[in-house]
Amino acid sequence: MRVTRRIRWLLARPLQAGRVPSRAGKSLATLACLLLLLGVLLSLALGHWRSTPGPFIQRMTMNGHWLRVPGPATHAAYFRRHVRLSGPVKHAWVVVAPREGFEICVNRNPCGRWYLWRPTRPFQTGLSEGGQLLNASPPTLALNFPREYQWSSHRNDWMPVVLDVTQHFRPGRNVVTLELESRSAPAMVKLDGEILLWSGERIRLDTDSEWLAEPVPPFDIRHDWTEPDYSDSSWRPAVDATLSGESPGDLHFQSFDRRLLTTPFEGSWVRSPEARPSDAVWYEIDWDLRGAPDDAWIRVATNRTFDLFVNDRRVMLPLLGNPDLDSGDWLLGTPRAADLPAAPELLDPDEVGSLFVGDRFESPRHGDPSSSVYKDRWAKEKQWNKTRDKPWATHRSDLPGTYDPIKEEGQDVMEHEPVPPQPEYHEPKALGRDRAIGGLLGYNIRSMVHPGRNRIAVRLVPPLSPDGYSWAPQLALDGGAIFRDGATASIASGPGSCVLCRTQGPSGEFSATVPAERSGPARVIGNRWPTTVYRGIAHDPSLILRQKLGWVVASLLGSALVAGVMLGLEWRRLRREGQEPWAALDQAARGLSRFLLPPLAILFAALLTEASWAERHEAILFRLPRVWPFILLGTAASPALLCAPIRAAGARLARLPGTRAWAPLLGTVLVLCGVLRIYKLDFQPLDDDEYASCQAVLGIAEVGAPKFVPEGVYYTRSPAYHYLVGASVWAFGGNIWAMRLPCAAFGVATALLVYRMAVRLLHRPWIGLGATLLFTLHPFAIFSAHLVRFYQQQQFFALLAVYWFCEGFLWSPSQRYRYLTVVAFFLAVISQEITAIMAFQLLLGLLWFGRDAGWRCNIKLGIAGAIAVGFIVLDLLVFQTRCLTRVEGVSPNVEAAIKPHFWDPYNLVSLFLGYSRLHVGPSLVMVIALPLLVVRGGRVVWALLFFMLTGTLLTNLMISHVSLRYQYWMITIWLLVSVCGLALLAERIAAWTRVRGEADPAGVAAVLASPIFVAFLLAWSPWRIVDSYDCKILNDSTGAFRFVRGQLRPGDAIAANEPHPHAAYLEAGRVDYDLTVPLLQDFVMLSKGRLIDRNGGAEVIASLDDLIEACRRHDRLWVVVNREKFRTRGKNIRWEYPAARIELFLRKNCQIAFRSYLWTVYVWDASRGQYENFREH
């Protein structure tokens, strides 16, 4: 607040020096501040509209129909389509619109994928085509994702994926396969595609009646279901979901001209007639455009790494990681060895009691553990690395530009560090040659071309090795542009074009420019052609920066000019009415300042919404060409909101809390809060941690103790929560409603408490209603309120402790509220033990805010606190000694505990950012209003700020785990402070611009705050809450195990991968094996000489041999696998994970019996008489 006053005083001082009355000077200073703010916001809006190097978004029309599998709705689907080709393929492409995840294969070869991840992750996470990402920036917050939001999935079908699949088809029999996965049933897909043969024949691949579909593929021991020879005679025709009315709609968008991937390459090879192997070669071609294109693209085929220039500006890509294009010439350093987090410790098997001879040492018995760290070798890599091999290769056939430049190795190796002896390094001569083979890459160059002549230049970089390449450098390119009227333009290196070339020697000298030699068409029948890879939007950062700076200057000058004209006209009008000059100037400045408030609020709200949606599929809406003009038009018309009827309505709303209509309005919000938390409460599957709490609750209801299946294993954590829910189960039965309803009730009680705190402590009912509404619609709060877990109960009691602390220590030294503060704190801790860190906050708050009530009262309060601390210590001792079981070893699955650390400093801002930028808007308003909150908020606001900031700090420094759920209890305080900041900001701005004769500016404050509060609500994406009740937000373990339960026969056995044996025990009624690879010791215990799961008592399977032995014991073995834990989601197995061999064994020997979201049920059936050992491959 003082800073704001100082700025206004400095702006008004020159006017006061010229004997301008202080009132007029302050009014002019306020007007100048508002004009500056308007200019900045307007420049940001214009920059988003005209200068952002974002993709070209427009509607897309797709052929084909939405298809689903026949029968009941499923969350997974498999599709096949046979294609017989009479000749070689010239070009083939597909456009896939999935609901929601997919993987497409052609003749068993994976061509593209879009794996399904949590909606809290950015839109298009899991997409294989990086160039088609709308937002290539890393997520704002990605430390440790929360369990989930109460959101439906991203609308992946809005942005179909375009794929070039030319190289995968062959003459004769072919098959196209699609594997789908969706949270919402049924899983559906829409595909548009075409195959062009060299003969000119075109074969459509649209989704139609020729596609076959099944919920799971029938097992074939000889062939994989993606192979052409796989027998699909039992498959059924796919069902047209468009005709049945189940389709998600036909709204599709494209971010680039899809002709880049759907048209054959038209360029011809060109070469330099005088290039030497060690030279860099430049190729240049001119492209004449009759106007500014809506979209323009270029494809470059080379056999070297290259740089691309458009109009003498080097092309850059807004991609993750290295922003450079495709030049191996810009390497900053050589690859370095991976630094281990700790030095390896070599253990002698004789000393640790190993019984396996193969584990014993050769002679000599001890080796050097540092021999695997080849720092000396990498330090010499400057001399050794004579190839262009990439240290981290990709599956894109060694495309240029796929490496990451890193720092010099010398920065990581200290001079005093001893260099261990290394073996001799020998390099075959064949490895001394550069083996980079180039590729076919496409770029969108819309932002870098202009009407008239454009110069396209490609620089093929010289080889790193002195021996050069074993082939001559050559280039082929083509491109296209589309204009607003539908006309097109094209360019190609071939007949009718003039491609110039020149060479650049090792010392930088250039040769004379000569025409390039044409060596024939790039595409010929029979030659293998690389897949076209779309790299994304090409842009020049300096050009974008100049454009944005231009918009800033234009916006500031334009705003000042228009405001000056309006101020002069208003001043003249007031002078004609007989007012004094300075009084007229003061009133004109205040009236113009008031006139600017609605445009400022609208623009600020629009920018807040755009920033909040940047990582979601809703960001597409802000990239449509007509959205920002519509927003700017609404901004220009927004001063009409200051008309008398609207201001009067705002003033009446400000007085609404004192009327009879207030109670029904509050009741409606609370009822909505309850409905959102209990609607379809039993539809969502249980989370991993929920199963542990369910076991404890059922044990309490049955025997009075939180007992698990193995003898002597108890879950003593959070006794207040588990015994309360256990009482509910004892009273109403062991069903999911009895377990989840208490959390939903605490959610509604928390909403009511938020409102009461605003009314009792802040005396601001509207702030309470606004914060309650935001909490009601908060997707994380809705989801957390129907978990069988203690977070909602912890939030309620922690917030209750803060409320009673303010009542007992801030307002008056009420002993009753002080005792209640201790009780609430105690209940919060035994609801979630890590809440014990709140004791530090209460002690500091007592010293800072507390009022002395006398030594007798203080002694009584100390005794009550000591009793509470004693019971808390007892609870912690029981938790540490009796909860679960003693650990048999050490595993990376570390539970959160109170332990000082400084692991992830960035997590300090996680509450204020939120995953998917959920909290960005309110947090920004809170930061802007922070001076007002400190100056005008009072002791209660200070206390709320204290608990929020110290709670964030202590949670991140004292709790040894990074997760937003440990800060969940502070979300309510953050909401109260943010809404209070918005109210204070609106009221003060309305007061600063108050015109003469105005009684109460409350109506203006309501007009100013309403658009920003609507932006807060839009940031929550509430429409996705409605759709979320029909989709499986969490992985569907319930569906998988209930299917197994319905299929069990006598003698069958069930195996579940860790940590889900307790899920199998609760859902299927039994569990025999715990599949845990690698072995996580803190999930198992030793019982009677066997390792068993500590939750369900299942025998541990820790290796492939154990699984084979389990198959030998049983005629039928059900293996239920969570693909999120097994890591492999698509066809290609991820061999870097330990369970890869087991997964291959399951695929080869077991049949997929059922699929649900992220779960696969395999069945081993010995009666089939088929067995294939892993070692046979």
UniProtKB/TrEMBL annotation:
Membrane topology designation: Multi-pass membrane protein
GO BP of this protein: lipopolysaccharide biosynthetic process
Record-annotated membrane-spanning stretches: 549-569, 595-614, 626-649, 661-679, 743-759, 765-784, 819-849, 861-879, 912-933, 940-962, 968-990, 1002-1023
Compositionally biased spans, kind Basic and acidic residues: 385-398
Transmembrane helix in keyword set: yes
GO CC term (a single one): plasma membrane
InterPro entries: LipidA_mod_glycosyltrf_83, RgtA/B/C-like
Keyword Transcription regulation annotated: no
Pfam families listed in its UniProt record: PMT_2
Segments forming a coiled coil: none
UniProt-recorded Gene Ontology molecular function terms: pentosyltransferase activity
Residue ranges constituting the Glycosyltransferase RgtA/B/C/D-like domain according to the UniProt record: 718-869
UniProt keyword annotations, A-Z: Cell membrane, Glycosyltransferase, Membrane, Transferase, Transmembrane, Transmembrane helix
Stretches for region Disordered: 385-406
PANTHER family xrefs: MANNOSYLTRANSFERASE YKCB-RELATED (PTHR33908), MEMBRANE PROTEIN (PTHR33908:SF11)
Name of the molecule in the record: Dolichyl-phosphate-mannose-protein mannosyltransferase
Source taxonomy: Bacteria, Pseudomonadati, Planctomycetota, Planctomycetia, Isosphaerales
